[in-house]
Amino acid sequence: MAKKFEKIINGYYIDPIIFTHKFVKACDVCICSGECCYYGVYTDKKEYEKIIDIKERIVRSMDDSQTKEAAKWFEAPEEDDDFESGVAYGTELHNGKCVFLDKQGFCTLQKVAVESGEFKWKYKPLYCILFPLIIWDGAITVDDEHLERMHYCNKPVNQVSTIYECCKSELEFLLGAEGMKELDSYRNEYLVQLKLGKQKSA
Ligand code: SF4
Ligand code: SF4
Hints:
Elements: E1 8-9, E2 12-14, H1 17-20, E3 22-23, H2 29-32, E4 42-44, H3 45-53, H4 55-61, E5 78-79, E6 87-90, E7 93-94, E8 97-98, H5 108-115, H6 126-130, E9 133-136, E10 139-142, H7 144-147, E11 161-162, H8 163-166, H9 168-201
Parallel strand pairs: 2-10
Antiparallel strand pairs: 1-2, 3-11, 4-6, 5-6, 7-8, 9-10
The protein binds iron/sulfur cluster (2 copies).
């Protein structure tokens, strides 16, 4: 799939759908309750180890809707070449949501980092940071399959922006500042071409 995309930045193909795909202006868990976390996530082995290393801190930040038994946080490891280390661990569900989602809709892994003044995504799995973006077959694209399950951010009435506009920090996290500049230029070129294409066919 990825080979059909012409632009590569930092080793990732860029699917231009990210520039035009409609999305909410900003995530707001007070409205959506963090429903993208109701299904759990697959984490790389290294991410799993980083989380287990701070399990006591995580337990301290959990509420009564979450299980504090670390042995119940992850499924058995699976071989998976989509992950850097070749091994993935799925997070378990508890009370109908990822074990790390609290009752207010916040991710405890992000909460512990913020509480200690660390980088907010230090312990958060990459796929959680990126959603509704996803890395699929080497390309940065939209996780349509998961997005279709959402009741807030997938409703056209709430989609007043684009995924690109909403996810600039996430893209910069993945591509770096220089990569982001390159992405911006590519977006401008792409949108001009798109407009020209539309004018021709009008
Ligand atoms: S991606 Fe959607 S469901 Fe997830 S936090 Fe953002 S608005 Fe809520
Ligand atoms: S680890 Fe955090 S962000 Fe990822 S699915 Fe679980 S609660 Fe959501």
